[in-house]
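We give the chain.
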Amino acid sequence: MRANYMLGNQKVELREVPDPVLIEPTDALVEITASCICGSDLHSYHGPEITGRPIGHEFVGRVTEVGSEVSTVAPGDFVIAPFTISCGECEFCREGLYTSCLRLGWWGSSNSRDAACQAEAIRVPLADGTLVKVDAQVDDALLPSLLTLSDVYATGFHAAAKAQVGAGDTVAVIGDGAVGLLAVLSAQQLGAERIILMGRHEARTELGREFGATEVVSERGEEGIAKVRELTGYGAPKVLEAVGLMPAFEQAIGIVRPGGVISRVGVPQYQTGPVGRQFFGPNVTLTGGVAPVRGYIERLLPGVLEGHVNPGKVFDSVLPLAQVAQGYAAMEARTSLKVMLRG
């Protein structure tokens, strides 16, 4: 089969690799129907050159074979896979914190036997705890939205949920990437009355308005902070940071209202940041983190299946797996918001 390998220095390579096989009785094999390129994949893409490793952590597909101890999915089932592997049984999984699973695995790492998702097929460890079966007819129109449940939609929802967004709230979202836009959608679903989207790419912010943004602020830095404070008075009570870069974090601190909440879900590209008097004096809460996607899929799935929401609109490009390199180049150049890959 074919699988994509990350080489760094703005290079990826589609390679012929052995077909996956069952190793443990808790494994399942899945033929990947669709995967995608994540904004976090770009950190490795424009990073230093490496010898090559499988890449990709978002996919949906059909089960082709299961191990003897798998009971929740069977061959032929259509499944969604979150971006982490989890057992579903330990104390953290029972609490819904699947990203702290005591048997946690990450796609493309040694604890997944280096299986990653920008490929034609994959071995899924701990299948009962990881995979979510979709009990519905899946067609091409539904596919993009189902794929967002493997990461970006659930991550955007995590940002809003951790900030405890509720009815009548004013929310500011920093970042017009896929996660930021779906944080807008999630805030709207949770009842926010006013949603300020901070982004400057017009096509993306227009989608943000469609998802529920009531205002768009294109300014950055001090100008952006001043604009949000002009709109809100004392700042936004709920700030969702979906970028992960230090300027975005500093902007979040600048626009949050005293007594407010900053919820970060953008993967931080820094080791330390300001968490001193900027938070202590005004009683600002800092929350968020890596999204326990497995805990949100079943909550969000009905809205997708019933057509109440269409988070799949964040995919503005669909390419065959053979053109994965073009997909990376397009996202790096920001000519595509998010690329879906089909076998």
About this structure: The longest strand covers residues 28-36.
